[in-house]
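Deviations from the work plan: none for this task. Representative record:
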Amino acid sequence: MNKLIIKNARVIDPFTDTDGTFDILIEGEKVIELKRKERGRSPAKGGAKRGKRVKERVIDARGLLVIPGLVDMHAHLREPGREDEETIFSGTTAALKGGYQAVVCMANTEPPIDNIGIVRYINEAEKACDVYPVGAATKGLKGKEIAEIGDLVNAGCVAVSDDGMPIIDAFIMRRALEYSKQFDIPLISHPEDLNLSVGVMNEGVVSTELGLSGTPSSAEETMIARDILLARFTKSRLHIAHISTKGSLELIRRAKEEGLNVTCEVTPHHFSLTDDFVRTFDTNFKMNPPLRSEEDREAMIKGLKDGIIDVIATDHAPHADFEKELEFDQAPFGVIGLETALACGITYLVKPGYITIKQLLQKLTINPSRILSLPIKGLILGEYANITIVDTKLEWVPQRFLSKSSNSPFLGKKLCGKVLYTINKGKVFDWKD
Amino acid sequence: MCPDSSQIKGLNRKDLLGISDLDRTEIELILNTAVSLKEILERPIKVVPYLRGKTAAFLFFEPSTRTLHSFSLAARRLSCDSVSVSASSSSVLKGETLLDTAKNLEAMKLNFVVVRHSSPGASHNLARNLRASIINAGDGCHEHPTQALLDLLTIREHFGRFNGLKIAIVGDIEHSRVARSNIYGMSKLGMDVSICGPPTLIPRDIEKMGVKVYYDLKKAIEDKDIIYVLRIQKERQSKGLFPSTREYIKLYSITEDILEKYAKEDVIIMHPGPVNRGLEISVSVADSSKSLILPQVTNGVAVRMACFYLLPGGEERENQLSM
């Protein structure tokens, strides 16, 4: 059986609340030894002598950060339907490179994940890391009738959502929230009032200067307000996807203070970038919700800092080049994010001192895992060795992606913090150039 | 008085995409060159050989007669060959992107590409991908730089200066590339710019562009030297941006009556055309002695000649000036 030793590992594991230096021994797919090291003592030698026909690999992680594999609770893997943009295999490979061990994929495939056939298809597809599907909240994502949520959960869905399309009809939203309660899963809301969100970017001085149609912050906030009220009334679990405005944050803050079962997420681009970048007319800055103002971006950082925002999720949305090469107002919404999310967190949150690396990791591991009740336990003896090794100081520039698409707003931008190795069920992936 | 090519340095940029990119000196260079070239339009033989052997392509994805003919005349007066490349937004629907079109144009070895497109940033996209000089003839609601330049030339001809002049731009600001380009240009030249229209046609945060905002036409025009009237597109009404053309006329139409009561006596009226007579402006005002609408059209040709003349047209500067 293959053996792997990660030596001198500075481990931060939010699952076990660990922060210390360890030697980690992995055999086969599992962690079999975690040896804490005393401060100042030179590392023990000779581990490589054990065993004869055992293949043993040693990674010296001195100066590197060793963390449990990350969890993305919001990705679009495009399969089935748009395999030219991404497949379950290419998307999970990109996820591995980004340091993830699990990806939660949204239901807006073609056809959508609104029946157990598609869930089974996803369960059986070839993949590079774990995938947990989200089922559609309504049949065909049409917002008219609730989907067979019991069947979906039974087949392995960890939440329901019509993400990509909001549930406009408040009555249906109420019923979907209510019905989901019996399965103890959250309903993930994509908060957008389609009657207000007529634009292709944030509505503000930049849209005014560029002559591009704007979507106001209120398009998001009115829906969040409605969904919170419905969650309160039905006493259901509500998770709000990709919030982007200061007003949204305030609504969720109040809901949490009131003790409602409401959680939320932000994407890396919404805490890193603003609508100023649209001035380039580069369609890699076009996504939904749109990049907002600097004031909104600062609010996102504050929300992450004080814990109102539970999760950082990528909203990984691959699009083919030929679509993104259209004019700004005609190109599709969405950007990829799996390969840059951790680096964005380090570059834009940890390095400037807004949050600690531990706080960042909580939002990328244990929080999404808890919200969705995923069977992920962190670095524990006898558990799967799903470990990511990061050089938090290494600067790099994203140029090429393992995703089948390359629509990243961070393309060509210098980021700090790079995943060097991902260990998935004991298997080592080396990403050093 | 023809421009002495040894003295005109040309614009130090490949393309003319918007007034927001230009500085005051560049705007003045274009206006001064236009003044010199305008003289050609008065000659019995209205053609000079400055751009002989060069080719301009007109790539109009949106219907236009005035602007297209103005560019076409400007090119012809300078002996620049021109070709209209048939273009329709339907090619986008067929899967051809503007980038594909750009690559085709590059293969045609053009010097200038004049582009009008319904998407903001379309000409920027072409400019990045072509060696030719791109002239933006209107990109969605973003910019229409040659319109602003001809307006500025018309203003300078009439007043002899820019500094301190007060202008009110009235109408559908939200959907107007003319308004945006003029706001940039006029502000850069020291004019005092106000805008006026119903709140539903005033884009968000426009005060941050350095303009005053009025909803009340009477107050907006009271101390202005110029009233710049924008065309109202009737289809905006069906989108719920104002209740009826009837009410729009009552509140915002520039009529003789309103001018008499509230405007300065020597106020000047401008309009980018085509005019919706009786809607945003009354027939009598459009045809009155206060109106500079026709001089604007003449200056359009002159300014566009200047743009062709001053842009490098896909070649090194020295080559062009050695003509």
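The first helix of chain A runs from residue 88 to 97.
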